[in-house]
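Sharing a chain and its predicted structure for anyone who wants a worked example. Both blocks are below, sequence first, tokens second.
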Amino acid sequence: MDPKDVKIALKNARECIKNKEYKEALKHCKGILAQDKSNYNALVFVGVAADGLDQPDQAVKAYRRATESEPDQPLAWQGLSGFYEKHSSPENDKELVEVYTKLRDFFENDKDKKTEVTKKLANLHIKLGDINRGLELYEKLCSEETEDSVKCSLYTDMLSLFLKLSSPTPPQEDMVIDIMNSLLELDAQLEERIITFYVDILFKKKDHLLLEKSCHVLCEKYPSMKYPLEVKLLIIMDRAFCSELLLPTKDPHMSETMTRLSELDSESVTLKAAQGFQYMCNKELNQAKDCFVEALPVMTSTICVPYYLALTYFLLHKLADAESTIKQCAINLSKKSRQLTVSSGVVSRKVKILQARILLQTRTTDSLQSALAITEELCAEDTSPQVLILRGHILLNLNRLEETEDILSKLEVNTERTALEGYVMFYKAEYTKSAAIFCELMKQDTSNSEYHLMYAKSLWFDKERLQNNLQPCHTALLKSAKLDSYCSEPFEYLGRFYTEIQKDQVKGKRCFQKAFDLDRSNDSAGEALCDIMNKIGEEEDAYQLLLSVTGKASAGCCKWAWLRLGLHQVKHDTASVAISSFQSALRADPKDPHVWECLAEAYYKRGSYTAALKAFTRASELNPNSVYSLYMIACIKQTLSMLTEAIEEYGFILKDKPNYVPALKGIGETYVLLAKHHFSQGFNGRAKENCQNALQFLTRAVCHRPDLSCLWKLMGDSCTIIHPLPSQTFRFNVPENLYKSKESAEECKLNLLQTLELGARCYGRALKLLPDCAALWHDLGFNLYQQALHSNGQESLDMAEKSVEALRKGLSLDPVNHLIWNALGLVYCHSGLKKPSLGQHCFIKSIQAESANVVAWTNLATLYLKNGNIELAHEAYKVAQSLDPNYVSCWIGQAMIAETVGDDDAMDLFRHTTELSPHVEGSLGYAHWVCTLLQDETKHNTEMYSYAIHQMLAVPAASDALVKYLDLVETNPGAYNMYGLLKEQQGLYQTAKEAFQKAVKLLDPSDILLNLVKINLARTLCKLGEYPAALFLYAKFGELDSLQDQCYMGLAFYKAQKYTESYQAYDRALEISTTDKDSSHIHAVLGMVAYKFGDVDGAKASLFQSSQLQPPSRHGLEALCALGLMTCDMTLTRAVLQEMPKVGADNSSPYFTVVHHCLLEDDWELAKAFIQKCIQKSPDSYSLWRLLSRLQLRCCHDSLSSSSSVCAQTALCLRPECQNLLTDATLGLLIDGKHVSKTTNNEALLSAQRATLINPEKLENWCTLVSAVHSQSVLEAESERMTALLKLESSYLRWLISTTNITDVLRGWCQKQVTVVSLLTREITKESVGDDMKVFVNSLLERYSQPNNDEQQVLKLYKSLLSDTGNDEVSNKFTRLTDELIKKSTLSESLIMLMKAVLLMKSNPKLAKHRLVDILVRTKTEFDRSLLVRSITRRCLLHILKDNAEKESELIQVLLTEAEEDRDNDTVNYYKLLFSDSC
């Protein structure tokens, strides 16, 4: 393409672009570029066309290629500039910087274009964040510019840029100030927003002089702009901070500025604030407050507006608002964004002073402390008199007088110091001096309201001179109120003046109303206003006032209003609402005891006694001297049936105020209530004691207030409610001055009838005071009725008639009193009057008066039952039960009806009566049924018996019921007999014995019940082990018909060792036995008795007979097995062992089997295996485990571990109450060597200690403990511990030796152990041991081988008798010696028995034989002299058995065996000699 065609194509492309035909333009350009790739214009046109087709990448590439082809041409750069400006983005803006810079260079010679591009570049730098670079470009332009108009335009543009900045830096702010100064010099016309920006920067720079000067210039040059005027007003208001006066003065130029501002913007908030400032200076405080309140929300960054608002509130005495506002002002002052045109230090001082003044006037402890802290800060900065005087006022209000006087001493004399001195005099109650000071101050400054008020208050509180200064006081109060009409205190004192001095309640109310309206926080004015409104009868208005105050009050405020509102609500029966009011009052002052008392009263009136109790308790804690709170605490506890605690509370009151009648009456009444409660529980002794105490306190009360009928009524109750007590033993202590009407501090004892008479006298005194009280006539009538019941003959009838008269009098006063009708019915049913029809009429009238009258229904039913009308009685009782299911008397009546008709439910009904409450009829009836059922053996296996006796625990229940019965009725021998039977059934034999003895004392000798009771007593004595006493009773009866009694008599003889009589008694029992079971038991007993005689064959025969009967006696089989073991009869033993399991499940069979294996077969391992098999079958049998433990202790010593302790521990786990097993466990541990193991933690010693601790009376435990200690000491590694253990063992051993109940064998063992311990501790040597042991053995021989002189005579006679039993002289001498020695009682019992048996050898050999056998049995457990006695006894027996040697061969063999065991060679030799002669 030739150049001409290129030009045509470029022209066409330009036309296409002009016509926005960008695609056609691209075609033309591409054609050109196909020939000339670097054609500058074509590339530019491609960029324009691509941009028009929204192909930004192609456009940029085209422009870039164009600038590269001809970099000195501006067209492509201008194209890039337009493209980047059109497609603004962070990336394009960065590229645009280069483009603008290039263009700026191109237009170096074109001033206008260069300026335009430079401005764009500067703005772009600022946009990209390079503010300094942008401003440099502007400054360069301004420096190069010579024309003022252009320079103003550039300055304006720069300021516009600064406006866009969120927070200019200090250098930028300085630049703005410089620019503005230049503009002001050039008289440029600026926008208001720029002026505002400039002034704000001046605020920020805190150059107050420059700000004021600039504002003056701006106001002059730009009179149509309001912002400079507003700032000028702020400057004027801030300038007032520099004044020392509390209330600033007006600025003369302020009005002109305000006028100009109002013309521009009459709604300006700054104008409002300025108006408020002027109002405040003119003391138009309410208008000032309104203006400041309106301006403050907008002017939050200013300091003057919240300060002057707080000052206005302070002058208006709205201290709460003032305090909150000044706090906000202090917060604003600390902010960086504050608008302040004066020094912040001056303003801060002014704010703190005002804040301290406000806190001072608030006069709470917290506010005063805060104010004091503020003054401390001020004093640290400045000790000006103003601050010191303010601090002095604060200290004075904090009761720190000395510090205040110290401040006074530092101050120079001036008005404010004199005023402070006057306050100090007022504080000291030196009112005359105070009045003089304030009077002088009033003369100096007549416009000061505070001086007039303090002068009036000084006169007011100077009560001695007040009457002479009434007019000056009144005048001063009026003047003070006039000078400061916003202060409520002058009006409050005017109200007091009018009400207390002039007695003008209406004027007083108006003044109080004014005072309270001025200051709603003035509680004293509000209290006085409310009280005076109530006083003049405006209760509803006062109520509305209280509602208004409390409705607006915040939590914890207006205690006085909440308190009075609560009192009003309590007065008008809205206690529930009053509670909320009192609670609100407590939030204001939680430690006000008066409010707590009011709250408690509201709770009490509502019936919330528990809450009332807590509130009164809190009130008493806050005020311990409040008798009323203590009294109400006691009353509430009395109401809540906390009677014991109520008595304690009354006691606390009477301790400090012994003559306080309400407390005396309260404690007396509480004792009466407690007595009734104790009566209902069956505690009659306590009830009587309560009545005595009540009478003591009530007597003290009537000594001070005999005109109170309630006291006499309670005294009558105290003497009347004790009527159920038994009269035979009744003794009632009453003050002698009450009973005999004379001055005396002594007491006298009254019987029951005298006590009732005293009660009637007390009721009479009460009726003299209240003769029209029907309840008192009822009480008197009931008392007289009880006197009639406890009197006899004509006296009883007279009392009944008097009771009728008293009750009729009560009915005349109150005809519908159901209690009086019921009591009158009781009196008519009295045995003396015998008017059942009238009684029925009275009961019906009582029911008509009160339909839900359970007592009257029950009494009516009882009347029907007494007269034989069972059906009507049953129906009446049913009604009574439906009315009160817990009333016991109606249930007793139903039980009696059931008993009468023979219903089986009678017993259950009687039982139910005992569960409800104690009653004599119910208790006796239930006990009778229980005893009857226990004696009826035919019912013992029935379900009814199991339920009635076992499941319902009838025996203890009936026993307890009889205890309460016998407490009231002490003359019923049948009840004592039943009580004894029940106690015997429980195993309480001592109590049963005492009951039977009381029954015997009460019964006449001719009474048929006497012998039955004595038999019961004898049986109980047997169970107690008192066999001689039992035999004494049995001796009086002769032959007994009862098998049980006959058996008990035989038992008594047996236990008393009277075997012959016992045998005869059991033989008689066998005769009267009717069943094989009983006969089997009796045969078994006969066998045992025969064995005691030594009649082994007879014993065996009786035991065989017992085993042959069905069912055989288990005890008989056990005795037969034991006999077989003792006689070494293996056949018999095995046969019995085979029969024993057939008798029933019993643990005795394993015992006998073990003994059989051990004794007869000498097979200990077999015995052990047998027990282990039994344990496998019954692993929960503790007796088997114990048997295995005992067996291993005795015979398993060779094994490494017998496990005896494990068995004993297992048995203990199965039967924890069997603590004797601990001894076995300890022995097992010792035998098993468990004391050796270090891992067992001394189990043997611990077990021994535990056993000794549980049962210290058992000597076996102490011996085991000694063994455990010894084992531990021997194995102890530490010598010191071993020595300590040995010393402990030695002390135990010496204590055991010193005891009296230790056996000789055990004493000998202990002596040996002492020797061993002495050797181990090296207290003795081995050489000295032999001599010591010899001495010990000789002492034992001497002790047990040398009889006394009496015994020597006896032994000589024994030998004579044994050698020649036919010598009468020796026999007679022996008889005389026996009688003498028995009288002297110097011999042992065994020896005396031997002497008596020897005397019978001729006269009754059979009986002598039995006695001698008894001696051998007895002496088995004795050691003292038993060997010699046993030797002689055996020889005597051999002498008797000589004539019947074949028949008695078994007994002879037993004697010889025992003699060999005891090493009794004399008996063996005597046997050889005796039987060799017979042969």
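Comments welcome. The first strand starts at residue 732 and ends at 735.
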